[in-house]
Design goal:
By secondary structure, the chain is of the alpha/beta class. The protein contains 13 helices and 10 strands. It has 3 domains: 38 residues; 186 residues, Periplasmic binding protein-like II (D-Maltodextrin-Binding Protein, domain 2), CATH 3.40.190; 97 residues, 3-Layer(aba) Sandwich (D-Maltodextrin-Binding Protein, domain 2), CATH 3.40.190.10. Helix 6 links the parallel strand 6 and strand 7. The two termini are 41 Å apart.
């Protein structure tokens, strides 16, 4: 701040007014000029020229490419700064992007589709994240527990991270394929990191677990009761990254850059298991020896409606969507050709 000149007489007061006016003018120029010169889109940091994206994520194998892109500087190369915060599940991130607390969130496809179909949030998917393969999505139990066969789950508690979401729907589909009456199962919600210990204590008869928590559960003696990514749910798309349509429209350049970075990182992670293994201990807090045992699915590098239709079908078959009324293409963001 420029202080008023204290000399007496009219000339001192005049100089004081001129100094204050000059300071105000400089401040106005700096405030408005930085935005004009940097091409700010709302999340721009005027002091660095980097566009900040506040992103919700989880400590799961699914998001390894995100951390790979951060570690290798791919976001910085595109002028993006990613501020991450942890969410318990995909459904938790959706109200946060609706309120503006987050710009982009990692989440499962069931949550995104349901929010879009029910007009709760106008979700726009920006990037794919993860697709299940054999051994990546397991219903686990303790071999000395009360349940030894899927049919014995009737009347028992089964842990899922969120009700009526992908975690539960794939379990239901796999169990029904084996003739189990899933209406007789008590599904209870539990965060993934808490599931291995809950199995060991006998708090639940089984738990629907993802990596790296599958490997943790194995270390505690848990075993596979059934593979949820099998039969009709084999190769099921699991999760992606999404924002609101409003955010994408107002930050189209940032959205295109994020999509471009993730496409590159997803493809790289898909072909380099060692790179993924090295990242896991840092953000999931598992031991390096556990990371070497983790079963890793696939990281799709493109958003494809044809692949995601299998999630729509799963939801329709479980009564979560009215038949033939949801078009997945309406939810997918495709960057314009001129986004470079």
């Amino acid at each position: 701040m420029v202080r008023p000149v204290t000399r007496g007489g009219p000339s001192g007061r005049s100089l004081s007014r001129r100094a204050l006016a000059l300071a105000a003018g400089i401040g106005l120029f700096l405030t408005s000029g930085c935005g004009l010169l940097s091409g700010s889109e709302g999340n721009e940091e005027s002091n660095s020229g980097m566009t900040t994206i506040n992103l919700g994520t989880m400590p799961a194998v699914d998001v390894a490419p995100l951390h790979l892109a951060e570690d290798k500087g791919y976001f910085a190369e595109e002028g993006l700064k990613i501020n991450t915060s942890t969410i318990a599940g995909g459904a938790q991130g959706i109200p946060k992007i609706a309120s503006g607390e987050l710009d982009v969130t990692f989440g499962n496809w069931v949550s995104f589709i349901r929010a879009k179909q029910q007009d709760k949030v106008d979700v726009k998917a920006i990037s794919d994240a993860y697709q299940a393969t054999k051994g990546t999505f397991l219903l686990m139990h303790m071999p000395d527990g009360t349940v030894q066969e899927p049919a014995e789950l009737e009347g028992k508690k089964v842990a899922v991270n969120t009700r009526a979401n992908l975690n539960e729907l794939t379990a239901v589909s796999a169990l029904q394929t084996r003739g189990v009456d899933t209406s007789k199962i008590e599904f209870v919600t539990m965060d993934f990191p808490d599931m291995p210990a809950a199995l060991e204590r006998g708090d639940v008869a089984a738990a629907s677990v993802i990596e790296p928590f599958i490997s943790r559960a194995n270390q505690l003696g848990a075993e596979t009761l059934l593979d949820q990514a099998s039969g009709p749910t084999a190769n099921m798309p699991i999760a992606g990254y999404a924002a609101t349509s409003d955010w994408v429209e107002q930050n189209s350049e940032a959205a295109a850059k994020f999509q471009r970075v993730m496409s590159k990182a997803q493809a790289e992670a898909n072909g380099d298991r060692n790179a993924v293994e090295e990242l896991l201990p840092d953000y999931t807090k598992i031991e390096p020896k556990t990371a070497s045992l983790v079963t890793i699915g696939t990281y799709p590098s493109t958003l494809e409606a044809s692949r995601l239709k299998s999630v729509v079908s799963l939801m329709e078959n479980n009564g979560e969507l009215p038949a033939n009324q949801f078009e997945i293409k309406t939810m997918l963001y495709q960057a314009p050709e001129s986004s470079e």
